[in-house]
Queue: 3 jobs
Job 1
Amino acid sequence: MENNTNTTTAATTTSAPSSSTVSRTVLLLLRVLTFVFLLIAFIVIVLTKETLDGESELKFKDIHAYRYMLSTIVIGFAYNCLQMALSIFSVVSGNRVLNGGAGYKFDFYGDKIISYFLLSGSAAGFGASEDLHRFFKANDLPLNSFFGKANASASLLLFGFLTTAIASVFTSFALPKKA
Amino acid sequence: MENNTNTTTAATTTSAPSSSTVSRTVLLLLRVLTFVFLLIAFIVIVLTKETLDGESELKFKDIHAYRYMLSTIVIGFAYNCLQMALSIFSVVSGNRVLNGGAGYKFDFYGDKIISYFLLSGSAAGFGASEDLHRFFKANDLPLNSFFGKANASASLLLFGFLTTAIASVFTSFALPKKA
């Protein structure tokens, strides 16, 4: 393992010090975690439904905030898959696809904007759940399982936001060293 | 004006180049804008109420998402006042209160965390408004003015988030140059 790291470092001496290799690996781990959180959040929100009065069905699509949540999950997921592919390539080969300042700026702005997206989706979901749930309960329609699932999805989205926000701190610190 | 800038630059040659003075002034402008947006958002959300059936009154406090919105406005406002005081001091005197890496790290993490707070408050407010408004309308209680005011406050909070997010880009770029 140590030999391997040394070889990689030696091969890219001009552009990548050892600490950069470490932070790339941490970034890749964070992105894998985000991938898992967003995947489960997606599955949970899509499966969120409950039958009312034995016939009509309440689906996640009926709550606009959950639709927005789904769209932020999809956007975050797509960005994350792209970044994971780039990260895997850069960890394996020791080189970056986007060389120079462009790659670091892409990481910096990408993580920043996507972390804002994920947080807004999660907050909108929680905001809608909290008050709608109280309102439905006051109307003798508890729907606990429906809102429980939606909140589980919003929580996973929040975890996905947290890992992306941590990645964003790393990419902010990496930015001007190379620019 | 030019003389003044030169004098300031000369006085702090060791730590602050001219571009740093410019970005400090831009940062101060962004913080003044955030201050104005958050102040109006605070006033609007506090004044959000509507009488139901001529007797009972619906207040912003009855919607939990709006309470959360208010708390993020207050947190953002307090942070912003502190940063404005520090910015004014640094623009006037040409020196920073927190010298070295500490000041830049405080700006970086502060702007990052507070921008996340403001966005989550705004998103929670919009998420709750959108679906509650639809739900109330379906129950023949339009409450257009109530939700209109709440959305106005959430929009102003969103503008406050945007100016803080732009400030956060500036403080991210300023970070490792001095660290």
Job 2
Amino acid sequence: MTRRLIVINPNSTERVTQDISVAVEPLRNSNLDIDCQTLAAGPGGILTQRDADLVVGPLIDWAEGEKGNCDAIVVACYSDPGVHSLREMLGVPVFGAAQATLGYVGAMGCKAGVISLRSASVARHNAAAGAAGLTGILAGDRTADVSVADLGDDGAIDKLLRAAHELIDKDGAEVLILGCCGMSRFSRAVASETGIPVLDPSLVAASMAYTAILGRYDTPPRGGRT
Amino acid sequence: MTRRLIVINPNSTERVTQDISVAVEPLRNSNLDIDCQTLAAGPGGILTQRDADLVVGPLIDWAEGEKGNCDAIVVACYSDPGVHSLREMLGVPVFGAAQATLGYVGAMGCKAGVISLRSASVARHNAAAGAAGLTGILAGDRTADVSVADLGDDGAIDKLLRAAHELIDKDGAEVLILGCCGMSRFSRAVASETGIPVLDPSLVAASMAYTAILGRYDTPPRGGRT
Amino acid sequence: MTRRLIVINPNSTERVTQDISVAVEPLRNSNLDIDCQTLAAGPGGILTQRDADLVVGPLIDWAEGEKGNCDAIVVACYSDPGVHSLREMLGVPVFGAAQATLGYVGAMGCKAGVISLRSASVARHNAAAGAAGLTGILAGDRTADVSVADLGDDGAIDKLLRAAHELIDKDGAEVLILGCCGMSRFSRAVASETGIPVLDPSLVAASMAYTAILGRYDTPPRGGRT
Amino acid sequence: MTRRLIVINPNSTERVTQDISVAVEPLRNSNLDIDCQTLAAGPGGILTQRDADLVVGPLIDWAEGEKGNCDAIVVACYSDPGVHSLREMLGVPVFGAAQATLGYVGAMGCKAGVISLRSASVARHNAAAGAAGLTGILAGDRTADVSVADLGDDGAIDKLLRAAHELIDKDGAEVLILGCCGMSRFSRAVASETGIPVLDPSLVAASMAYTAILGRYDTPPRGGRT
Amino acid sequence: MTRRLIVINPNSTERVTQDISVAVEPLRNSNLDIDCQTLAAGPGGILTQRDADLVVGPLIDWAEGEKGNCDAIVVACYSDPGVHSLREMLGVPVFGAAQATLGYVGAMGCKAGVISLRSASVARHNAAAGAAGLTGILAGDRTADVSVADLGDDGAIDKLLRAAHELIDKDGAEVLILGCCGMSRFSRAVASETGIPVLDPSLVAASMAYTAILGRYDTPPRGGRT
Amino acid sequence: MTRRLIVINPNSTERVTQDISVAVEPLRNSNLDIDCQTLAAGPGGILTQRDADLVVGPLIDWAEGEKGNCDAIVVACYSDPGVHSLREMLGVPVFGAAQATLGYVGAMGCKAGVISLRSASVARHNAAAGAAGLTGILAGDRTADVSVADLGDDGAIDKLLRAAHELIDKDGAEVLILGCCGMSRFSRAVASETGIPVLDPSLVAASMAYTAILGRYDTPPRGGRT
């Protein structure tokens, strides 16, 4: 039986969705259909808290339409917008790019450095790690100071590398996380320049969602202690 | 000069807004006008993550209308919906009921027990404490298993007290936090029955907002490290 | 191109290897060959620290023979024996059952309860979580008080369930982890009785190893800060 | 009814008490009398652990004289001398400058940088944060390398600013805390130069004490778990 | 050369000093003279924060008299009164009973349960552990609900054992700490009844002070980062 | 009665054993015989995880031969190989160099900087601190980039000092730990150059083992919670 995983890009930039689709390509197999969709109602990029908060409404609307239509969902944005709400409304597993990748680093037994778009993201990322009890696996979080639009320009690689090297040299990062799903296209270049693994959150989250499908690890009902 | 603090109740239940207004009453003085408003577009109560997420849009719309019109804002809901977004869009201080109260407990040098509406809230509260780096001040979080509607019924006090006593006896709580702004009316009764302080998040958050007005502690721009 | 993942059961009990093979079966596909092997030189079960320590030598010898012969390795034992040494000696990704599962729980945004064989395992598990910076995701760890041999007996389910219910009711566990790869056969029964996901460490670790193969996330060289 | 809050400066330097009185001035209103007193028996400044320890005796003696005479007390010194003892002996709320300010930062959802007088204070501040479970909200603590006497000299501002900029640039501080109540007079200048809020511990602690008066949050009896 | 270690009992109860002297007896050897003294100016027992704070003055006075007269000092009280001040004023090593014992448990790789006199001590002990960064080694802290005077009565053993068994059974304590130096005489009985080690803080702290003498580990000057 | 403590150097380099014997010399007295042995079957130095893992087998064999023959054992290697296994198989106290020294720093109320041989050791050290719940006492861990063989060369002191000064100046270390027992011979020089205590793990661990002999603190049986 073929299972269906939807990877939703909550921003409306098609190029990012295409990059995500390339990133998860290796995971596709005869039993797993991965459908990468663009949230048409989303903003061009999710840079601010407001972007992250306001996109949840459209995401929920979108998810209503996919109810009963998929076996798991990945929200492919490093701000994990709407992940808890989608878990609550759907029985199927839901994974967010950031939470999934931080957990994966824990599984590797490493400390991670996160490359962020803007310095404003750093506090948001740290809060998300704290919320998930994963602060202990963060070596550092540094900004490349680029916009989502800049990521379409090949020159962005130099800014990403500068942040990468500081994370490795000053913060002791053993692996790197691309702190925006739109950075996907630079993962090989950063890995090759730094010599350490560069985790692509879209692929990692999609893989974990696939695991949940295979293991029937549906979203647990909240509230174990009654 | 009179300063203006708005306390917004993000659910649409007027009774809750009235209770909040009573709770913050002592803080009003000749220099401080506290305006307690009900978010008409909000849900009847904020019980689920979806409630908390979807109310942010209406909150932001509401805040646009108050721009330049107030000196600080308190979101009087223990799920702190939209707090980060409001901070981002407004220059003025913004405080959320939960974060403010947890910080206040830290200032008291105590460990707190939180009385929650539903067991589903417990994980959300713990995540919020982790996000703020305040996990260390929580003694426990236990559910009274009541709805927002139940809070209008005087019989709810017994359920709150059962949770309160377990927090004190089993978890070592030194102060109690009412984990829903609609529980405000029971604060005196719970304090008197348990003999320890029972913090009312609306009052605590409003006081902290007032402090920020006095000290000109505007919301800091995100991203100190550039 | 077909990739090859070896799952090594470091104890010599064939039945456990067969159960592991059943557990990872859903992950097999036309591009991924999963070879579950039994470490003939291992002990019957890994219950003590001595068992966990002494099996590393045979594991390393075994891994020497597989060098260049596989794309990733999973050590399917909740004590993660030899994982760091194998990472050091091999370029390919190596995942251990415990570390992988704890990280996966972090990715789910949950708190986990671990069902252990013996009370002696609890301290070892807590130390492992601390070493990986993952203490924050543990709700509790309780012993079922069974031996590896007992796990062959269907009556063991009652003991596992007793631990499971205490983890849920007293510790607030939202998902359960089977703290021994030999408990795999009970995962469906425990999930169905408790109504929450029961993670099978063999499947979770194998999935993460597969992700690493797909993403080319080789083991990072130790020592980022020079 | 007018309530009475006493802010006690535990060092004997009148200039510091005057600065504190200016700092808390905005909080005064028709219902709140704030009486800033100098502890005549205190040392000229509290720089060492010995200073902090030996001042507790005179503070307790002083507090005996104020028993029944006030509604709350603030110890306006960033070493929080005697705070726990005063809480124990008095029914009324007692707040210390450091603990209050750290909690306030948690309420703001920020990470704070502390500007200390001397490097010897740093370890003491970190220990105090750890004792209160507030380590998670500290971004850093750096010394301006000034004495209490230096603070009377306008040239001290440059040293404070140097520490401030390092806290922001290297440690990621989002708000700053003046780690000595005698630094109060520089708060506006540091805020204006750095562009981020600079918390004045005297004002913050006094505001929190006022909240406790309003909410009747008396000091809880120690020992919830019996 | 004979070295001289002074163990100061900061309460004035001679019986406690005698018990401490018996506890440290095994450490005495031809090169080490251990002088157990009673602080005549101390209170009968140190039960409250006020007791702990007010005894620092007399302790400092006493220490002035011993300056140049000893090679190390142990403050034999589980509230560690004055330890930081004595470190500051003396070049020689100074160890406190609580901090030393918590560190020793960390060295054993265990989690400890603390038996406290009164429930009021529990919060103080937790704060002390947090201040030293040692929260992670505490399994629990439970009160035996006895006074220092009660400790002279053999019947106290039952109360200590009740706390001990709860620490083991409910909190997972692997070793026990006597949370008052006056409990010393019961250490063998509690160890024999529970079957796990019962640490005597006086002996542990004295041994660590001896280590510091041998290794010339004088109190470090505060303020490494300048 | 003379007690017998064995300090086992798990590497086969005799020079290191001799240095260790010199380091623990001050602890020897008429009641304590300290026997420093070299593990003939060990590697020349323990630099890698593989070294640390593979030496456990020979260590266990060696310990079998010493059963009933000693009152306590110290494993004098900063990777603490086999410590948990030896604890499990022997009733007597067993201390490892790293765990003991980290606990000792906690007892001193300080933050420590660790000087490591190679950058590959840093992650291993951090994991060990996390496993023991002692992360909170680490200021930093920096590599001197030397081999065990280099330690025989007096020129190594410069590399150690460079790491030492960075730990003090950048990480705020108040005491230093020699992160390899073979660095023992440089302890005085580093202490004298930096002006802060330099802890020798062999001496610290041996002293703690002696304490355990005196207090009869045998290794606790694992598994308090049944």
Job 3
Amino acid sequence: MLGEILENVRSKSPLIQNITNYVTANDCANITLACGGSPTMSDGEEEAEEMGRLCDGLNINMGTLHPRSVKAMLLAGKSAGSCGHPIVLDPVGAGASTYRRKTAEQLLREIAFTAIRGNISEIKTIAGGGNSSKGVDADAADAVTDENLEKTITFAKDLSKKTGAVIAISGAIDIVTDKNHTYIIRNGNPVMAKITGCGCMLSSLAAAYLAANPDRRLEAVAAAVISMGLCGEKAFEKMESERRGNASCRNYLIDEVYHLTGSELERGAKYELR
Amino acid sequence: MLGEILENVRSKSPLIQNITNYVTANDCANITLACGGSPTMSDGEEEAEEMGRLCDGLNINMGTLHPRSVKAMLLAGKSAGSCGHPIVLDPVGAGASTYRRKTAEQLLREIAFTAIRGNISEIKTIAGGGNSSKGVDADAADAVTDENLEKTITFAKDLSKKTGAVIAISGAIDIVTDKNHTYIIRNGNPVMAKITGCGCMLSSLAAAYLAANPDRRLEAVAAAVISMGLCGEKAFEKMESERRGNASCRNYLIDEVYHLTGSELERGAKYELR
Amino acid sequence: MLGEILENVRSKSPLIQNITNYVTANDCANITLACGGSPTMSDGEEEAEEMGRLCDGLNINMGTLHPRSVKAMLLAGKSAGSCGHPIVLDPVGAGASTYRRKTAEQLLREIAFTAIRGNISEIKTIAGGGNSSKGVDADAADAVTDENLEKTITFAKDLSKKTGAVIAISGAIDIVTDKNHTYIIRNGNPVMAKITGCGCMLSSLAAAYLAANPDRRLEAVAAAVISMGLCGEKAFEKMESERRGNASCRNYLIDEVYHLTGSELERGAKYELR
């Protein structure tokens, strides 16, 4: 089933509109191409309504916010939503400033997101519970572990109920859940926290997977998370064997997505579905 | 002659002002350095007039438009034009939104471009004929083939007559033409459509080649297109032999431009001049 | 001592707020991660005051200026300054336009910088003396050589006295000085001038090194400059042995920072302290 989800992306080549930050936009575009999607990148409010309508999926990323891009997010989010296109929210650094927190609240109020993906600190901020964070990284005290796994799943399910969105929490253990079912995913590698934009790239990927698999939302997001983690593992191996560092590893990660097949994804996936 | 054009870029190191998008700006800067040019990147209207005047060549790219950058384009375009500096237009996604279409029209009305480079759907939009496109990629139905080659050349020549610009159409077959003569170029590799910004990078390259060869406009643009295609071929070979993907291929492409010599360019060029 | 400075960055993982350009932001974020820091990238005036307060160090880079980002720089600079956080200024292309020159003047008037890092032409512009420059590259006539070394050191010391900042001048010979002591550094490789953003990345690195070593300002900036030069040398060797070009070299440079140890830094450093 995971493999089929990826293959649908490659065969349908969905058009993914990314309203995203200027730091990782290039990597987001290249990973969207790597998985078989067709990216457009633009934060102009002048074309946001139209782009939201014409795309197959929309990815909204809060990495480098400004009032104009927020307007574009709202316009594109509403038009994409009214057309039934899936919409992903990546609340980058939601707890890092008051402006980000308030913007996240506004986006959640005005747009019906299909999926929300972030690290645990970002997702806690979204849920209104947490306000600790250090920049754009998760607070170590928040980390999802085997000890707090049950509690975190319950928290994520509740947030899914409240928002109607699939919730994806990235970390050493990844959680992807809707109100009923949960994927607990153990793919990935710690080096990914040393590559800027791994989260952003994953959100672009999730938008592409969702757009090509509109009727399997939970599975599509889980497949994106597993793809990213698996490709991160492979990229790390290549990095180690060639004595590279985080910059080359970023390229290898996208390279691995470029070559990933459905059957490899099936074989490499490490998850439990509850 | 192609080789001499490249060598002029390396010896003169022209200063190329790029008003471009935030997605591929880094790659555009690095490829400009790779070919021997000196890039400046800025979209501030506060300095646009001055930058247009002080540069040796100007590259205007519509990738991530907003009203401020459009003002910068108009100011820089006019000052560069009045100083006789070559100006390239890359109408990224010209048909993807009304805002882009209208902006392209305005730029063409107010600036005398030396060259216009885009995919076939973008160039058709520029010509006022086409309005089909899917995001920033060319519509498959528009693709230049051996079957419609004659018709496409006539179309491009007409557009060159109308605009006074060298017209470069990128695709499996590249066409570079003025009102009299046409280069039909068969360098390149399909992987280039899987690397974000190949078009953007080519436009930066064209601006550098033009700035260093102001009296040979058609040849300069053709040499840039051939250089890009040839380096794309070499990068693809390296990607394949090392089992990499599109992200590494992007680096290899710029690397190849860095090492390209005039004689290699002569030897590797696959074109017909009519 | 140099080694200890790097190790402090790795152990303390300072949060570095970068208000920087959209051309090299990704590389700046990845090199900050590579050295052990935690980068945030944002130019929103809406959150600038708060980000300046919450960070451990601030890096202000003039690469792609616009009035909104200038406001963010002023707000963040003041709040970071009032909290005692180190602040780096990278006056990219300070002499390339009137707008940049005036903005640099305003920033220097209103913010107490801990360090100012640029090429010789940029630093001369900052000092009010020079106005020759070609885009963002140093004017060849300005280059620091063994012949004009004494004069340049005196000039840089005077600027340090005037501004209270550590002055770092990048070039074939690097100078890092306060009003009393000077590091004359001979690490580095000419290929670094062919990689966009080497200066920007160094300034991000300097901000991280300063934030983790607040009581050794001169040494921290010198250690950052030496780290960058040494990693540039190693990256060049790798580039040559693998027949790559400037784009791969950029990745290798960041990779080398990722792996750099304190003892390697000590061993590879080529400098004289006066």
